[in-house]
Amino acid sequence: MKSLVMIIIGLCSFLAVTQESKKTATEPYNLEGVWELKHQFLYNENNQISDTVLNQNGYRQVKMYSKGKVMWTRYDPKDNNEWFGYGTYTIKDGMLEERLEYASGPMMKIVDTTQVFKFELVMGTNSYQQIDVDKEGHYVLAENYNKIK
Fold first, then answer.
1. pTM of this structure
2. What's the CA gap between 135 and 118, in Å, rounded?
3. Which of 21, 24, 53, 148 is deepest in the core (most CB within 10 A)?
4. What residue spans of 99-140 are helical by DSSP H?
5. What separation in angstroms does the CA of 121 have from each of 18, 83, 87?
6. Residue 10: band (very low, low, confident or very high) from pLDDT cuts 50, 70, 90
7. CATH classification number, 31-147, choose in 2.40.420.20, 2.40.128.280, 2.40.260.10, 2.60.40.2140
8. Is residue 70 within 8 Å of 90, Cβ to Cβ?
């Protein structure tokens, strides 16, 4: 009888652990909501942070993610250009991929040469980091966002 109880307890424990690991394996990334750029990191050739770029003098960048769509806007009082974009996004294997469909004039010039923007994605509880990685796998720049809604 004790053996049967131990087997049942062991089986329940195993099922609970596998269900929890499935949950964390399939649901670690949730960008739904509104995010504001806090600061950026620049990296050296050893993938170490070499500098932190803080938002200054009214600079503001906001991204919104909802149901596979992304929209972002940036305001920089030192720049007379309008910066915004809209498109779709996917997350797979720790990578964030954004495909802009529509954007402001200066951004459309960039979109003409770069159709897909790919980033390594690092999630926190109320923050995320999108890291631009070059062809050799070196980190270039990270944008660090906090959730605002």
1. 0.77
2. 11
3. 53
4. 105-113
5. 25, 22, 18
6. very low
7. 2.40.128.280
8. no
